[in-house]
Amino acid sequence: AAFALGSSLLNGGTTPGVFLAVAFGFASASPLGALLSAAGVDAVGEAARSWMVPAAIGLSGGTFLYVGVVELLARNILQQEDDEDLPTKLGLFLAGWAAMALLALWT
Hints:
It is a single chain. The chain has about 110 residues and is mostly helical. The protein has four helices and no strands. It has helices at about 1-10, 15-45, 45-75, 85-105. α1 (about 1-10) runs antiparallel to α2 (about 15-45). The longest helix is centred in the middle third of the chain and has 32 residues, at about 45-75. The two termini are about 25 Å apart.
């Protein structure tokens, strides 16, 4: 994601100052989110903690699924008009999705 953002900014002719500001904000988002989440979980009681942590993990996992579907499936697989390998690509995509779903159920 960072590479895609950086490439888009550089290709768009962004100034170095704007590029560094955006890169710093992007790089700080995960640590700041982790700190805020930890503080939020510590601030609530045990009853709320029992659903907040799984909800946060589910939200982050859903974000990765969304990015994977939008970036990989839509851009690289479905935009090819005369692609004779489309059934194979979709089958492998669905097999990978099913494997991850089974892994999630197993753990």
